[in-house]
Amino acid sequence: MGIGRYGLHDTILYKRFCKGWLRATRVQGVRVFAYLEANIQVLTAVRTATYCMRFSVHHLAHSKMSGAGIVAKASLERTAELRESLSEINSRIQQAAGPSSHKPTLVAVSKYKPAADIQACYELGQRDFGENYVQELVEKAGQLPQDVRWHFIGTLQSNKAKILASIPSLYAIQTVTSIKAATALNKALPAERSSPLNILLQVNTSGEDSKSGLPPLAPDSPADAELTQLARHIITECPKLHLQGLMTIGSLVESLASLDKPNEDFETLQKTRDALQEVLTKNGFSPDAGRWGVDGRLLLSMGMSSDFDAAIKAGGDIVRVGTGIFGTRPKKEAATSSG
After folding, report:
1. Residue 337 CB: number of other CB atoms within 10 A?
2. Given this model, what pLDDT does residue 313 score?
3. Distances (CA, A) of 149 to 139, 228, 252, 322, 324
4. CB-based contact 153:136 (threshold 8 Å)
5. Closest Cα to residue 232, out of 204, 199, 207, 189?
6. Contacts of 133 by beta carbon, 8 Å cutoff, 6+ apart
7. Exposed / middle / buried, residue 264 (Cβ in 10 Å: 0-12, 13-18, 19+)
8. Per-residue DSSP letter, 73
C-alpha cells in the first residue's frame, strides 16, 4: 500500500488496525485482509477500518451459531449411519453406567474423518470430539461450531504447545507427560481465555515400550515419583491449567480379555488415581481449592471402541470412541491425500 493521497497518518492507522483485527479474528481475517490490500486504491483508511469492524461483528455473531467456516453437509445416508451409531454407543454407555446419576463423557474420536461427519454428529447432540494430530485439529476447529469441546489425545510435543493453546475451543489435553510440556502450555495460553485448560496426565499402565505415559503409582511409591512431581507442578506453577484427571491407553491383550475378566490396565489406573489423590491431600493440596479434579476427585479417561463398556464398569469417567461411531478409519496417507 502506498501513502499517496491518503497521507502518512491514515496509512499507519490502516496498518495498525488491520494487523490487530487480523490477529483477533485469526483465519477468518485472511481472505478479507487480502481483499482489502488488493483494493486499497479505492478505499480510504477510515472506510477500511469501518468495513473491517462491520465484517468482524457480523462474522463473530454468526460464528457462535454456525462455526468459523462453511462445512459441506453429510449425505442423508451418512447422517442416518452416524445417528444409529451414536444412539447405540450412548445406550451402551447408559447401560454400563447403571443406575448412577453420573453419566460418563463420550469423546467421539474423529481423526481422519471429514468435518461433515463431525458437523452431523454435532447436530445430533454430540459435543466432545477428540483429535490426534495438531494440524488436523487446527483445521477442523476453524471450520466447526465454537461450542465444540475439543480434546487433544495425540502425542504432545512441547514445540506444538503454542499452536494448541491458540485454539479457543480446546477443552482438554489428555496426553501430558512432562513438566516441560505443561509449562509450555501454561505460558502459551492467552490471558483472555475464559477458563483454565483441562489437563489429564497420561499413564502407561501396561508398561509397553510402544505406549507413551508415565509409570503408574502404588501405595508405596516414593513421594518424588514422576507422576506426583508433574501433578504438583501443574497445581502450583500453572494457573492457566486445571489438573482434571488421568488417562491411559491399555494393552490390546487386556482389551480383548476384558469381557471375561477385570481389565488390569483399568484397575492400575484407578489405583494410581487413588494413590495420587492421597499424596496431594497429604501435601496440603485440597480438592476443595478447585485446582485439581472434579467434584473432589480426579477423573479417569480409559476405554475405547472395543472395551469402553468394561472401562465404565471399572470406574471410567471419559471414554474415547472412534471406530464405533465413524466406522473404520482410512490409513493416514490416504486420509491426507484425500483431504
Report:
1. 9
2. 94
3. 15, 27, 28, 16, 19
4. no
5. 199
6. 111, 154
7. middle
8. P
* Greatest pairwise CA separation for the chain in angstroms: 81
Q: Cα(205)–Cα(248) distance, rounded to whole angstroms?
A: 7
Nearest-angstrom CA–CA distance, 150 and 147: 9
Report the C-alpha gap between 278 and 217 in whole angstroms: 11
| SS3 category, 129 | strand
Q: Is 19 helix (H, G, I), strand (E, B) or coil?
A: helix
Instruction: Quickly state the pLDDT bin for 69 (edges 50, 70, 90).
Output: low
Cα 202 to Cα 41, 133, 174, 338: the distances in Å are 55, 16, 7, 31
**Strand pairing partners for 241?**
197
User: Per residue in 161-218, pLDDT tens?
Assistant: 999 999 999 999 999 999 999 999 999 999 999 999 999 999 999 999 999 999 999 8
pLDDT band at 92 (very low <50, low <70, confident <90, very high): very high
The class that CATH gives domain 76-337 is alpha beta
In this prediction, residue 331 carries a pLDDT of 62
Q: Are 197 and 222 in contact (CB under 8 A)?
A: no
Distance between CA atoms of 69 and 325, rounded to whole angstroms?
24
Provide the residue count of the chain.
Answer: 339
12 is written with which cell numbers? 499507519
Identify whether the C-beta of residue 304 lies closer than 8 Å to the C-beta of residue 319: yes
pTM of the model: 0.78
Q: Rounded CA gap, 153 and 133, in Å? A: 8
Mode of pairing for the β-strands spanning 241-247 and 299-301: parallel
